[in-house]
Structure formats: C-alpha cells, structure tokens
Model the fold of this input.
Amino acid sequence: MAVTRTFSIIKPDATRRNLTGAVTKMLEDGGLRVVASKRIHMTKDQAEGFYAVHRERPFFNDLVSFMISGPVVVQVLEGENAMQRNRDIMGATNPDNAEPGTIRKELAESIEANSVHGSDSDDNAKIEIDYFFKPEEIVG
Ligand code: ADP
Ligand code: MG
Done:
C-alpha cells in the first residue's frame, strides 16, 4: 500500500481541554507521522472557505463559529493509506456512533465539537493541505 498524506485539524474543543498531545498520540499510535503542524486561530473567512462544501448545510454557521471559537492545530499526516487510516482513527462524525478507541468516541464532546477534522478523499487532502501549508512547511 502506498505512503500518502492527509490533512487533519485538532479542533477548538480539543485545544481548549489541552488535548493536543492526546490526539496526536492516538494518530501516531495508529501509524501516522506528523510531517507538518502549526497552531493557528482561523479567521471567519478562512473557516468559511475551508468548509465551503458545507455552505448549504443547516449547521454551517454554527460550525464556522465553533471553528473560530479558539485555536486549532492544523497538521499534515503521512502514512500508508493515510486518508482512510486517519478516518478510521478518528471514528464516526457523531461520537455516539463512533467505535470504542477512536478519537471521537474517547474525546469528542458532541457531533459538532468532535475534536478532529480529517480529509475524506485523497483529492480533498491535497486541496486542504494546500489551503493551510506551503510546500516548504512540510518536512517528511
Ligand atoms: P466529518 O468531519 O466526519 O467528515 P462532515 O464533513 O459531514 O463530517 O461534517 C463536517 C463537520 O461539521 C463535522 O466534523 C462536525 O463538526 C460538523 N457537523 C456535521 N454534522 C453535523 C450536525 N448534524 N450538527 C452539527 N454539526 C455537524
Ligand atoms: Mg468531512
């Protein structure tokens, strides 16, 4: 299986509870390597642009408000089949439906404040990585 990259965000509910390390450990224990990482406070424009695909969803405005409610940690993760591996480690969107041992089951507060974002395809991973990182900020 090929080594690929995906994009991750440690969301404001997790940074607020000082869980950056706990989340990162679960990603690393699951076989992913952090090859880029920075802590940022997203602007409204940045968050709206990032979630543009969800613009028509009823939860869009709340989601943007949540994502700018505190700092986040944006990361590039590398590993075998990184996108799917990360989705497996994250668990289902709604923590009530997530498997035991997943980040969202163990750490998330709610379906919105669900601790992590992960790209949902290799194509979107590339778009999302490029949205937050310059090539020279990624060191594998
Ligand atoms: P995922 O993050 O698992 O890929 P989606 O792409 O469908 O899930 O949704 C993006 C984010 O929007 C979710 O991670 C969550 O923070 C929020 N969200 C999704 N569905 C809901 C919902 N029904 N109510 C509130 N927030 C939601
Ligand atoms: Mg998604």
User: Anything to note?
Assistant: The first strand starts at residue 3 and ends at 10. The mean pLDDT is 98. The beta strands are 3-10, 33-40, 72-80, 116-118. The CA atoms of residues 58 and 64 lie 12 Å apart.
